Amino acid sequence: MQPNWPAVRAEFPALSNWTCLNAATYGQMPRAAADAINRHVAQRDENGCVDFLSWFDDMDAIRASCARLIHCEPDDIAFTVNSATGLATLILGLQWQPGDEVLTLDDEFPNQLYTSVVLEGFGVRLRTVPWRDFHPAVTGRTRLAILSTVNYSTGWRLPAEEVSEYLRRRNVLLYLDGSQSIGALRFDVKRVRPSALCVDAYKWMLSPNGAGWLYVDPELRPRLPATVVGWRSDRTWRSVDTLNHGNPLFAEAAEKYEGGMLCFPSLYGMGAVIDRMLEIGPAAIETRVLDLAGKARSMLGELGAQVSQDQSPIVTAVLPALDSSELVRKLQTQRILVSSRKGKLRVSPHFYNDESDLAILREALTREGGAAAGSRIARLSPTA
User: Fold this and answer.
1) Is residue 352 a contact partner of residue 12, using CB atoms and an 8 Å limit?
2) Digit-coded pLDDT (tens) for 330-382
3) Largest CB tally within 10 Å, which of 76, 152, 229, 316?
4) Where are the domains of the chain?
5) Cα angle 7, 8, 13; round to 5
6) Which of 332, 319, 299 is nearest to 371 (CA)?
7) Which residues make beta-bridge pairs with 145?
8) How many CB atoms lie within 10 A of CB 369?
9) Whole-number mean pLDDT of the chain?
10) Edge-to-edge strand order for the sheet containing 77-79?
11) CATH class held by domain 5-29+281-380
12) 110: enclosing H helix or E strand
C-alpha cells in the first residue's frame, strides 16, 4: 500500500518553517527521534543510570534494525560516531606493507582523500584517478579501494556491484562510504559484498550527530584487529563486577571495534528513524526520493540550468549568471535550504518533501535569475 506521504511529512517539525531540500548536508529529524532521545534522558533521571547495562540490550535491537536495513547480520554491525572514525578503523587496522597502494577517485569526499597523510606513515601510497581510469589503475600493489556509493558534489552513483566483483577477482578490499545514499536508496550487502561499509546517519538517515554504523565483512574481521581498545574490548565486558584485568579476549562480532561506551542518546534517535523507515518501506522511500529528484532535474532544466542526469538523490545544476554560493545564501534568507558544491547548486530532496517544496524553490530561482539578468544588463549598458 502506498504510504500516506502528507502524514509522513507531518512527522518533521522543521518543515513547518523551512523548505528543506538539503538532505545531502543535513537530513531533518522526525519527531520520533527526538521522542526516543527524551525517553532515554528521562529514564536516566528516573533510574539514576542503575540500569545502564540494559541500554546495551536496546543497542543490540538497534543493531538488528541496521542489519535489516542493509540485509546483513547484527554481528556484522559496529556503531561509530561518524564516517571518518569508521574509515580509520579499517585504515589503522590493516596490516600494510611498504609499497602497497590504495585507490580512490579524484573528486571523492575529503575523508577519502585525506587518508593519504595516514597511509604515508605506513609507506603506502594513495592514488587518485578519474572514474574512466579506475579499472586500469588496479594493479598487483592495490590493497584497498575507498569509494562513495554516491558522489557528494555531483550525485554520480557508483556501480557498486560491478566494482566490488571486479575488485574481489583481484583480491582488493573495497570500503564504501554510504553516507550519501543509505536512507534514500536501497542497499543489499549480500549483493554488493563490500569489505566494509560505513554510514554517518545525520544525512539521509535523518539522525542526530554522533550516530552511525560500520559494517565489516565476517571474512575480514579475523584479520582486522581493533584499534580502539577499551573496557568493552573483552568479550566478558558485561560482567562489570569482575572485569578481566589481563589481555582482552576479543569477540568475533564487529562490536569488538567499539571499545567503550556508546553515544546512547544519538543511537536511540537513530534507532527510531530506522524503525520508521523499515515501516514505510525502503523500496517506497527510494521510489519517492528518485521521483522528487527527477522532478527537481526537470524544473532546473526548464529554468535553463545544466543539470546532472544520474538516477541519484542528489541533483546538481549550473544556473547561468548565478553564483551558486551567493545564491544559496540568498535562498537561506528566504528559509529555503539547498547547498553549493564546487560551483554547482546542489538540491537533495528526501521522502518528506513534496512538489510544493519544488514549486517554492522554482519561484525563488526564477526571481533570483531575473534579478541577476537585470543586473548583468545594467552593467553592460553604456548609459548605466
Assistant:
1) yes
2) 999 999 999 999 999 999 999 999 999 999 999 999 998 766 544 432 332 33
3) 316
4) 5-29+281-380, 32-279
5) 95
6) 319
7) 103, 174
8) 18
9) 95
10) 77-79, 212-216, 196-200, 173-177, 142-148, 101-105, 125-129
11) alpha beta
12) helix 110-113
CB 308 within 8 A of CB 157: no
Site of grid cell 554488493: 192
Distance in angstroms (rounded) separating the CA atoms of residues 65 and 52? 21
Tell me the residue type at 203: K
Q: Whole-angstrom Cα distance, residue 325 to residue 11?
A: 30
Longest dimension (CA), the chain: 87
Residues 6+ apart with CB under 8 A from 322: 345, 368, 369, 372
80-119 residues labelled b (16+ CB within 10 A) or e (exposed): bbbbbbbbbbbbbbbebeeebbbbbbebbbebbbebeeeb
Cα Rg, the chain, nearest whole Å: 23
Q: Is the pTM of this model over 0.90?
A: yes
Confidence of residue 321 (pLDDT cuts 50, 70, 90): confident
Alpha-helical segments (H) within 186-320: 189-192, 264-280, 282-302
| All three cell numbers of 274 | 530506522
Are the beta carbons of 213 and 199 closer than 8 angstroms? Answer: yes
Query: Where are the strands (E) in 100-169, listed by range?
Result: 101-105, 125-129, 142-148
The answer to whether 175 touches 190, Cβ cutoff 8 Å, is no
- Strand (E) positions, the chain? 19-20, 77-79, 101-105, 125-129, 142-148, 173-177, 196-200, 212-216, 306-307, 315-318, 336-337, 339-341, 344-347
* Distance set, CA 117 to CA 72, 113, 123, 279 (Å): 32, 9, 10, 42
Q: Is the separation of the CB atoms in 175 and 198 below 8 Å? A: yes
Fold adopted by 32-279: Aspartate Aminotransferase; domain 2 (3.40.640)
* CA separation for the pair 275, 193 (Å, rounded): 24
CA distances from 60 to 56, 205, 254, 255, 270 (A): 6, 18, 12, 10, 13
Quick check: 173 and 152 in contact, CB under 8 A? no
Q: At what angle do helices 355-380 and 282-302 cross, to 10 degrees?
A: 20
Average pLDDT over residues 205-225: 98
